[in-house]
Structures are given as structure tokens and as C-alpha cells.
Write a structure and sequence with these properties.
This protein has 286 residues and is an alpha/beta fold. The chain has a single domain, classed as Rossmann fold (3-Layer(aba) Sandwich), CATH 3.40.50.1820. It is globular.
């Protein structure tokens, strides 16, 4: 009786094991494992392309995905106002570029913004295999981020394109030159840098102070400005950078728009040479 009972138990055990194996084989091959899509939190649509949202360094970020990725996974990194003059980024998406953005609003290119930028760059290049040298795009105050991050990592920047960029916070938002400035934004800027106004006016790490780094690393630069811009006067920003780079033997072309809109105090305008910007970025990134 004992031998029979043992045989019956073994048969039952084998049947149970066989049933368990069959159940396991019926499961999806990645059941219980991380999937390729679990790195982002949600999807949305951006001008006809898929946008993947995620969080980096506790800040919201996203990448816009081309329908077909170009060899080497090139990308542009937009700093601030990603829906202003977006047509060039759409054109680059059509050429296989990704477009990346992280929210560093209210930081005015300070050290915290730089650390957040470092996290985004590390994640995209190391975890998502993006190209090691993106094109940096800065719109208006985005110029503060673009040039400060470039000074921090010049070897990681393929080229810079900026649209009416702020290159010295004494010009905007302080309004210490000929621009109209912004008292509210200047107060926020001082808080972001934890400085008094006296300290800020002596600050020597604005984008205009990084000219030598740009020239030494031969980073291609292209700007567009409007000549009647009262918010970010080009004479206090772009043209100072252009002149300083020229003194160091580094050529910097500038697209000039005679008149920006009256409503924007000359700061906004219809872009006249979008194809030129696309060609500039493709030339230096691909």
C-alpha cells in the first residue's frame, strides 16, 4: 500500500508540474519584465508627430519622435518656448531628428537648470542612444540656458541656433541698457541666482562671458534677430557676441529681420529663412 501511494503521489506531482509548465508557456514572453516602452509616462501629439513625456530630475520633459529615425539618432534640444517658430523643428523631424525639451522655466540658466540639463543629456545619450552632440536651440531667455550649458560641456554641442536670445541678464530682464526690461522677471532672476542686484550687476558668467569657449571649440553659431526688438535689443546681446567672436577669428552669421511686431515690442516676427536654419543644423549634426 505504501509503494502504491508513493507512485500515486509522484504521478500527481508530475501532472501538476506539467500543468504549471503549460501555463507558463502560454504567458507572454515578457510577462513580469520591463517593456521597451516603460521609460515614458504618456504619449501625446505634437504637430503630427508622437511626443513621449517623462520626468527627469523632478522636471517634466519630452521627446518628439520622427516617423523614421536618421542614422546616428541626431537630435535638437530646444530651450524654452518650444511652440514658437516650431516649423524648423518639424522640418528636422521629417529628416529623422528627434526633438527634446525639459522644463527649466523660472531658472534663467542658473546652476540648477544646468544640473537638470545634465540629467536630460545623460539619460538621452546613455539610456536612449541619442547622438552625443545635439544642436542646441534657444529662444529668447532660452539663450541663457543654451550658452551656459555649452560653456559647461562644449565638447557635447554640435552647433547653436538662437532666436532673439538673451545673452546677458543685465539687458533682460534687468533692463539696465536700452531695453524695456521686466521688473517682475528681474526679481525672479535675482531669486533664482540667490543674489542681490549689486551682486548680479557684477556677475561674470553670463553667455557673453563664454565667448572664448565658443571660439576655442569652434562651435558653429547662427542667430536671428529683429532690429527693432525693445525686449532683447540685439545691440546688447547678439551683436556683442558676434563682434567678440569676430575678434577671436570665429565667424557668426546673423539673420536680420527689420521689424518685429508692434504688439511684441519688436520681439516676435514671421521667420524669413526657415530652410537656412534647417540646413545649418543638418550640416553640423548629421
Amino acid at each position: 500500500m505504501d509503494d502504491c501511494q508513493e507512485d500515486c503521489d509522484m504521478t500527481t506531482s508530475f501532472s501538476s508540474l506539467r500543468s504549471s509548465l503549460l501555463v507558463l508557456l502560454a504567458l507572454p514572453i515578457f510577462a513580469g519584465a520591463a517593456t521597451a516602452d516603460d521609460w515614458f509616462e504618456k504619449k501625446s501629439e505634437w504637430h503630427g508627430f508622437e511626443r513621449l513625456h517623462f520626468t527627469v530630475a523632478e522636471r517634466s520633459a519630452y521627446v518628439v519622435v520622427p516617423k523614421e529615425t536618421a542614422v546616428g539618432k541626431p537630435w535638437v534640444w530646444r530651450a524654452r518656448f518650444p511652440d514658437y517658430h516650431f516649423e524648423m523643428d518639424v522640418a528636422l523631424l521629417n529628416h529623422g531628428f528627434h526633438v527634446a525639451y525639459v522644463d527649466v522655466g523660472g531658472m534663467f540658466g542658473n546652476s540648477r537648470a544646468m544640473r537638470i540639463g545634465d540629467h536630460l543629456y545623460s539619460f538621452l545619450t546613455k539610456e536612449r542612444d541619442f547622438a552625443a552632440r545635439p544642436a542646441l536651440e534657444g529662444v529668447s531667455r532660452g539663450g541663457l540656458f543654451v550658452y551656459n550649458w555649452t560653456a559647461r560641456h562644449p565638447e557635447s554641442v554640435a552647433c547653436i541656433y538662437c532666436d532673439t536670445p538673451v545673452l546677458d541678464f543685465k539687458s533682460w530682464p534687468a533692463g539696465k541698457g536700452n531695453g524695456i526690461g521686466s521688473a517682475g522677471a528681474w526679481k525672479q532672476c535675482l531669486a533664482a541666482y540667490a543674489m542681490t542686484e549689486e551682486q548680479a550687476l557684477k556677475f561674470s558668467s553670463n553667455p557673453l562671458d563664454h565667448v572664448a569657449i565658443i571660439a576655442e571649440n569652434e562651435i558653429p553659431v547662427l542667430h536671428i534677430v529683429s532690429e527693432n526688438d525693445e525686449v532683447v535689443p540685439p545691440a546688447e546681446n547678439t551683436y556683442l557676441l558676434q563682434a567678440s567672436l569676430k575678434d577671436l577669428g570665429h565667424h557668426m552669421p546673423v539673420i536680420s529681420v527689420p521689424l518685429g511686431t508692434e504688439k511684441s515690442h519688436g520681439h516676435h516676427f514671421t521667420h524669413p529663412e526657415q530652410d537656412r536654419v534647417v540646413q545649418f543644423i543638418r550640416l553640423h549634426v548629421e
